[in-house]
Amino acid sequence: MNLLIVANAPGEITTWVKPVVQAIHKESREVKITCLLPFCQFASGKEVDLLKEIPGIDIIPTKSYLRTLIRGQSCLGTRSQKGVVFHLGGDPFHSLVLARRFGWKVAIYSYKSTFPFLKYFDKIMVLDGLSRERAVARGVKRGQIETVGDLIVDSVNESFQTREELCQRY
Q1: Nearest CA-CA partner of 51 in 76, 16, 23, 18
Q2: Which run of H or of E encompasses 23?
Q3: Nearest Cα to 91, choosing from 67, 108, 66?
Q4: Is the pLDDT score of 96 beyond 90?
Q5: Edge-to-edge strands of the sheet including 58-60?
Q6: Distance between alpha carbon 108 and the CA centroid of its chain, in Å?
Q7: 133: enclosing H helix or E strand
Q8: What pLDDT was estimated at residue 158?
Q9: Bridge partners of 110?
Q10: DSSP β-bridge partners for residue 123
Protein backbone atom coordinates (compact mmCIF):
# COMPACT_ATOMS: atom_id res chain seq x y z
CA MET A 1 0.00 0.00 0.00
CA ASN A 2 1.03 3.60 -0.64
CA LEU A 3 0.74 6.38 1.90
CA LEU A 4 1.14 9.93 0.66
CA ILE A 5 1.57 12.35 3.55
CA VAL A 6 0.95 16.01 2.77
CA ALA A 7 2.75 18.40 5.11
CA ASN A 8 4.01 21.90 4.65
CA ALA A 9 6.28 23.31 7.33
CA PRO A 10 8.94 22.34 9.90
CA GLY A 11 6.47 22.19 12.81
CA GLU A 12 4.24 19.62 11.14
CA ILE A 13 7.20 17.58 9.94
CA THR A 14 8.82 17.46 13.37
CA THR A 15 5.75 16.95 15.54
CA TRP A 16 3.34 15.11 13.25
CA VAL A 17 5.05 13.49 10.25
CA LYS A 18 8.01 12.00 12.09
CA PRO A 19 6.01 10.27 14.88
CA VAL A 20 3.37 9.05 12.42
CA VAL A 21 6.01 7.53 10.14
CA GLN A 22 7.75 5.91 13.12
CA ALA A 23 4.47 4.42 14.36
CA ILE A 24 3.62 3.05 10.92
CA HIS A 25 7.07 1.47 10.58
CA LYS A 26 6.64 -0.23 13.96
CA GLU A 27 3.47 -1.88 12.64
CA SER A 28 4.52 -2.70 9.08
CA ARG A 29 7.29 -2.21 6.56
CA GLU A 30 4.86 -3.05 3.74
CA VAL A 31 3.67 0.56 3.48
CA LYS A 32 5.49 2.79 0.99
CA ILE A 33 5.52 6.25 2.56
CA THR A 34 6.02 9.42 0.55
CA CYS A 35 5.79 12.97 1.87
CA LEU A 36 4.71 15.69 -0.51
CA LEU A 37 5.42 19.33 0.26
CA PRO A 38 2.79 21.63 -1.31
CA PHE A 39 3.20 25.36 -1.76
CA CYS A 40 3.06 27.12 1.60
CA GLN A 41 3.61 30.66 2.80
CA PHE A 42 4.90 29.32 6.13
CA ALA A 43 7.58 27.03 4.66
CA SER A 44 11.11 27.73 5.83
CA GLY A 45 12.99 26.08 2.97
CA LYS A 46 14.40 23.45 5.37
CA GLU A 47 11.53 20.96 5.02
CA VAL A 48 13.38 18.58 2.67
CA ASP A 49 16.37 18.49 5.05
CA LEU A 50 14.08 17.64 7.97
CA LEU A 51 12.35 14.89 5.97
CA LYS A 52 15.72 13.38 5.00
CA GLU A 53 16.30 12.73 8.73
CA ILE A 54 13.27 10.40 8.80
CA PRO A 55 14.23 6.90 7.66
CA GLY A 56 12.00 5.03 5.24
CA ILE A 57 10.29 7.98 3.59
CA ASP A 58 10.43 9.26 0.01
CA ILE A 59 10.14 13.01 -0.60
CA ILE A 60 8.34 15.03 -3.26
CA PRO A 61 9.62 18.60 -2.87
CA THR A 62 7.52 21.69 -3.48
CA LYS A 63 9.07 22.25 -6.91
CA SER A 64 7.62 18.88 -8.02
CA TYR A 65 4.13 19.42 -6.59
CA LEU A 66 2.44 20.57 -9.80
CA ARG A 67 4.14 17.86 -11.85
CA THR A 68 2.87 15.25 -9.39
CA LEU A 69 -0.64 16.66 -9.54
CA ILE A 70 -0.71 16.93 -13.34
CA ARG A 71 0.93 13.57 -14.10
CA GLY A 72 -1.02 11.80 -11.42
CA GLN A 73 0.79 8.94 -9.79
CA SER A 74 3.81 8.69 -12.03
CA CYS A 75 6.13 8.90 -9.04
CA LEU A 76 3.86 6.95 -6.69
CA GLY A 77 2.89 3.95 -8.79
CA THR A 78 -0.08 3.26 -11.01
CA ARG A 79 -3.66 4.37 -10.51
CA SER A 80 -4.65 0.76 -9.86
CA GLN A 81 -2.46 0.62 -6.76
CA LYS A 82 -4.20 1.25 -3.48
CA GLY A 83 -3.25 4.21 -1.38
CA VAL A 84 -4.24 6.85 1.12
CA VAL A 85 -3.50 10.56 1.16
CA PHE A 86 -2.95 11.63 4.76
CA HIS A 87 -3.13 15.35 5.42
CA LEU A 88 -0.82 16.55 8.19
CA GLY A 89 -0.32 20.20 7.33
CA GLY A 90 -0.98 23.05 4.96
CA ASP A 91 -4.15 23.75 3.06
CA PRO A 92 -6.34 20.61 3.24
CA PHE A 93 -7.59 21.38 -0.24
CA HIS A 94 -4.27 20.02 -1.63
CA SER A 95 -4.92 16.63 -0.05
CA LEU A 96 -8.49 16.48 -1.32
CA VAL A 97 -7.40 17.29 -4.88
CA LEU A 98 -4.53 14.77 -4.80
CA ALA A 99 -6.76 12.00 -3.46
CA ARG A 100 -9.34 12.64 -6.18
CA ARG A 101 -6.63 12.69 -8.82
CA PHE A 102 -5.18 9.36 -7.65
CA GLY A 103 -8.48 7.69 -6.81
CA TRP A 104 -7.30 7.12 -3.23
CA LYS A 105 -8.94 7.51 0.17
CA VAL A 106 -8.11 10.68 2.07
CA ALA A 107 -7.61 11.20 5.80
CA ILE A 108 -6.77 14.23 7.91
CA TYR A 109 -5.49 14.95 11.38
CA SER A 110 -7.43 18.06 12.28
CA TYR A 111 -6.20 19.92 15.32
CA LYS A 112 -9.13 22.34 15.57
CA SER A 113 -11.69 20.76 13.21
CA THR A 114 -12.68 24.11 11.71
CA PHE A 115 -11.90 23.42 8.04
CA PRO A 116 -15.22 23.82 6.17
CA PHE A 117 -14.71 20.80 3.87
CA LEU A 118 -13.96 18.19 6.53
CA LYS A 119 -16.97 16.11 5.50
CA TYR A 120 -15.23 15.31 2.19
CA PHE A 121 -12.47 13.40 3.97
CA ASP A 122 -12.96 9.66 4.43
CA LYS A 123 -11.44 9.69 7.91
CA ILE A 124 -10.96 12.61 10.29
CA MET A 125 -8.66 12.14 13.25
CA VAL A 126 -9.15 14.73 15.98
CA LEU A 127 -7.53 15.91 19.18
CA ASP A 128 -10.38 15.49 21.65
CA GLY A 129 -14.13 15.46 22.26
CA LEU A 130 -14.47 19.20 21.63
CA SER A 131 -12.79 18.82 18.24
CA ARG A 132 -15.10 15.88 17.51
CA GLU A 133 -18.17 18.00 18.25
CA ARG A 134 -16.86 20.87 16.09
CA ALA A 135 -16.45 18.43 13.20
CA VAL A 136 -19.97 17.06 13.69
CA ALA A 137 -21.29 20.64 13.69
CA ARG A 138 -19.62 21.08 10.29
CA GLY A 139 -21.55 18.14 8.87
CA VAL A 140 -19.10 15.30 9.45
CA LYS A 141 -20.70 11.96 10.29
CA ARG A 142 -19.65 10.56 13.67
CA GLY A 143 -18.48 7.34 11.99
CA GLN A 144 -15.86 9.31 10.02
CA ILE A 145 -14.25 10.72 13.17
CA GLU A 146 -11.71 9.12 15.45
CA THR A 147 -10.29 10.78 18.57
CA VAL A 148 -6.54 10.12 18.60
CA GLY A 149 -5.16 12.67 21.05
CA ASP A 150 -2.56 15.38 20.73
CA LEU A 151 0.17 14.31 18.31
CA ILE A 152 2.39 17.18 19.43
CA VAL A 153 2.30 16.17 23.10
CA ASP A 154 2.68 12.50 22.16
CA SER A 155 5.72 13.28 20.00
CA VAL A 156 7.40 15.08 22.90
CA ASN A 157 6.54 12.23 25.28
CA GLU A 158 8.08 9.71 22.85
CA SER A 159 11.24 11.79 22.53
CA PHE A 160 12.07 11.85 26.24
CA GLN A 161 12.03 9.05 28.75
CA THR A 162 11.46 11.18 31.84
CA ARG A 163 10.53 14.69 32.83
CA GLU A 164 14.01 15.11 34.28
CA GLU A 165 15.56 14.23 30.92
CA LEU A 166 13.36 16.85 29.25
CA CYS A 167 14.41 19.49 31.79
CA GLN A 168 18.11 18.62 31.43
CA ARG A 169 17.92 18.82 27.66
CA TYR A 170 16.39 22.30 27.66
Answers
A1: 18
A2: helix 18-27
A3: 108
A4: yes
A5: 58-60, 32-36, 2-6, 83-87, 105-110, 123-126, 145-147
A6: 7
A7: helix 129-137
A8: 54
A9: 126
A10: 107
